[in-house]
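Structure ticket #2291
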Amino acid sequence: PTETKVTSIFRLHPQDGQLVFTVQFCSHDIPYGENFRVHESVVFKAGPSSGVETEQWVEVLWIASLPWTHGVLKSIIEQKSKADGLGTRVVNAIKKSAS
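Resolution: structure written out below.
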C-alpha cells in the first residue's frame, strides 16, 4: 500500500563527534506486518572537510514466524524494507535541504 498505519519509536543519541538516529516501527495494515519490526540506524558525523558523513543500517527483526506456506515472503519483506527505508528518506531530505 502507498500508506499504512504504523507504530514507531524514534531515538536521537548524541555521542562524541556523532549523532545516532534510530527508528523502529511496525506496519499494521500490511500482510504479516505484526510479525516483524524494521529497525533503522543512521549515524551522522563530521566529514573530513566541512561536510557531514552518514552511515546507515537497516535490519528486520522477526517477532513471529510466518506460516510455513509463506516462507518465501520473508526475503521479499526484508528486501523491500531495506531498499526503501525511512533512514534513507531522512538523509535524502537533509541533503536536499542543505544544497
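Closing remark: The chain is about 25% helix and 40% strand.
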